[in-house]
Amino acid sequence: MLPMLTGFINYGQQSIRAARYIGQSFLITLSHANRLPVTIQYPYEKLIISERFRGRIHFEFDKCIACEVCVRVCPIDLPVVDWKLQPVIRKKQLLNYSIDFGICIFCGNCVEYCPTNCLSMTEEYELATYDRHDLNYNQIALGRLPLSVTDDYAIRTIFQLPEKR
Ligand code: SF4
Ligand code: SF4
């Protein structure tokens, strides 16, 4: 008789504890019900990127003088500047230029110090590829202007996330 009674008492205590936990979790759920969402439905919604965002680098081939300042200021010597000397005019002629975004840390040093302003940081951040070698952008890929999220009518743009309350 006694073990049965103890079993009933234990069962009752466990039921009360379970009911208390369910009640607590329900109260937490209720407390979140009047809060605004802190996420957006990417990729159907996108945030407007801030003005100083450091995204994919844009490069203007015609402005580059192959001085290699961008290589010297880069913490990992990343930009590849391929040039040949033109002895007649005694100037360097740029042949190829590339940056590997699989390695770049987007510090912006190259953009900051380029004497001809042929480098700039764009708002483009969707750089995912299936092959990391595709992240090595040559001058043609670097010269492509990014699409602005505001020009894409298929998505909804969000100016900023709501403040936390
Ligand atoms: S610093 Fe500017 S101009 Fe000089 S090589 Fe780099 S991109 Fe070209
Ligand atoms: S952003 Fe920084 S890491 Fe990337 S290429 Fe320029 S200097 Fe190098």
Automatic annotation (TrEMBL):
Domain 4Fe-4S ferredoxin-type as annotated: residue spans:
55-84, 95-124
Q: How is the cofactor bound?
A: Binds 2 [4Fe-4S] clusters per subunit.
Catalytic activity line of the entry = a plastoquinone + NADH + (n+1) H(+)(in) = a plastoquinol + NAD(+) + n H(+)(out); a plastoquinone + NADPH + (n+1) H(+)(in) = a plastoquinol + NADP(+) + n H(+)(out)
Cite the binding residues for [4Fe-4S] cluster 2. 74, 104, 107, 110
Superkingdom of origin: Eukaryota
Q: Where is the signal peptide?
A: none
Where would you find the membrane-spanning parts of this chain? Answer: none
Q: Kindly provide the name given to this protein in its UniProt entry.
A: NAD(P)H-quinone oxidoreductase subunit I, chloroplastic
**Can you name the source organism?**
Terniopsis daoyinensis
Query: Per UniProt, what is the name of the gene that codes for the protein in this document?
Result: ndhI
